[in-house]
Amino acid sequence: MTRTVYLNGDYLPETEAKVSIFDRGFLMADGVYEVTSVLDGKLIDFDGHCARLARSLRELDMAAPCSDADLLAAHRELVRLNDITDGMIYLQVTRGNPGDRDFAYPGPEVTPTLVMFTQDKPGLADNPAAKTGWRVISVPDVRWGRRDIKTTQLLYPSMAKMMAKAAKVDDSWFVEDGVVTEGTSNNAYIIKGNRIITRHLSNDILHGITRAAVLRFAAEAQMEVEERPFTVAEAQKADEAFITSASAFVMPVVEVDGVAVGSGTVGATVTRLREIYLEEMRRAAI
Ligand code: PDD
Predict the structure, then answer these.
(1) Residue in 147, 173, 185, 278 to alter for ligand 1 test, most ligand atoms within 8 A of Cβ
(2) Residue range 189-200, pLDDT digits in tens
(3) Is CATH 3.40.50.150 what the domain over 129-284 is classified as, yes or no?
(4) How far apart are CA 208 and CA 150, in angstroms?
(5) Which pTM was predicted?
C-alpha cells in the first residue's frame, strides 16, 4: 500500500508530496516537529504534543499553521487512510518558502509548511528490547543551548546514534559539565531504592511529554521523584535506569559505558512503570 502523507491541507501519495528547495526547513533547519504514537488506532497524549508544538512555535516566533482541532482531524485522517493500528505520526512545521535564501526570517506573507506522515510499527508496545534493556555509552553534549525547543536540527543526535552503533550499543547519553542531560532522542532516569532521579526541566533538555506522564504515574504509585542532574558514575551504581520517549515509551537501560546497572538485567520497578504507562495511556488515548 502506498503511504498517504499530509502536506499543507492535502492528502497525497508520498511520491507526490513536494516541498520547495527554498523552504527554510531544508536550508536552515528552521522547523519544529512532534512525534505522536498510535496504539490500537488511537493517539497517545495528543494534547501534550499539541501544547509542546505551540510552545516550540512561540519560542521561534513562527506562526501556527492551523488550529489544534485541525491538527487532530489530520492525525486521525492519516491513521484512517494508512490503516495504522500501532505506529507513529511525524509532524513538522517549517517557516516556509520565502523564494530565496536569507538569514533573516521572512515576513508574515510567507506561510508555514506543515508536513505529516505515518510510520507503521505493528506491535510497537511489544518491543522485545523492553525485556532485555538498552546498553548506552556517554558522549559529550555539544548541541545548542535551546534543547527545550523541539527543532529539526538533529545532526548531532544522529552522530551520537552512529557513535552508539559503532560501539555496538543501543543509544548514547549526552553529558555536559560532568552530568547527564538526556539521550539522543529521549529523557534519561536512574532509580535508587524507591526514588526516581531525572534531570530538572530547563533549556538544557527537551521537556518530554512521556516524562511528564511517567513522573505523574510514579508519584501516584508512591514513588519519590527527585528532579536533579546525575552523573554517569551515579547511574552505574543505581539499582535501575531507563529512558522515556513517545516512541520507546519506558525503556530499561541495563548498561552505561560498559558497566552493568544494578543486576545488569531489567528490574521490577522499570517494568512496572512501563506497564502503568502503557495501561494508563491506552485508556486515555483519543
Ligand atoms: N524524540 N529528548 C530528546 C532530545 C528527544 O528528541 C525526545 C523525543 C525526548 C522525549 O520526548 P517525548 O517523550 O515527548 O517523546 C527527549 C522523538 C521521539 C524523536 O525525535 O523521534
Answers:
(1) 185
(2) 999 999 999 999
(3) no
(4) 10
(5) 0.97
